[in-house]
């Protein structure tokens, strides 16, 4: 690969966009419209969140997409779930959403979306969104430090690219085995993790659970910067899922939301002080009231 001298300004290629929609006709239409925009250099497609995550990995074919245009309503992980997972990627793409309804716009902008388009999408409106995606790509390029300047202590992921990942982004997506298939699940959907020997059982929002081949102590080290707290030798809990801390004859317990019924988990005396400090310093009990 030819390396430009430090004073040279690298040529900027067209925007690489990944369009994600589970409806084939809608995906074909948005891909066609994107392909007609001269600012777009390449359009890729994915029919679900799993395929999109695979296409966004640094070891996938071709350059990593600069931008993702996401449908909100998809089976399995929806567009909002996928956008949250993207925060853990070393090369985070700009995100814009597509939806037939406007009821998720607040959620979209809270997680950093650059635009929110209503279906059916007008070409002129899509052109505005492409402009915002290009601007976001340019800002990211200007703020991205060369890999050589990264601290040697930074933890990296992403196929050995060497790009630094902030501590609170490590493990933002988790690989779990489901019926012989490896699937990525978002850490943000984990309510708590329970120790099971050298494994950890992840209890997810909505009621699902996954057995992870990782000791709870390792998860604690990696996930504490991302808002998890050890409350017991057997439990690591997401702070923003805790809605109540109470004491009784049997000791202290917490109420954890996210599943069909709130869970009641024990708090050991050893971890009580840190739990109280984390709750007071960060998200307080009662902030999250549902899944």
Automatic annotation (TrEMBL):
Residues of the HTH LytTR-type domain: 174-281
Keyword annotations of the record: DNA-binding, Phosphoprotein
GO cellular component, as recorded: cytosol; protein-DNA complex
Biological source species: Nakamurella flava
Protein name per the record: Response regulator transcription factor
Transmembrane feature ranges: none
Listed GO biological process terms: regulation of DNA-templated transcription
Region ranges (Disordered): 140-169
Domain Response regulatory residues, every copy: 16-134
Modified residues annotated as 4-aspartylphosphate in this record: 71
Biased composition (Low complexity): 147-156
SUPFAM superfamilies linked: CheY-like
A molecular function (GO) term: transcription cis-regulatory region binding
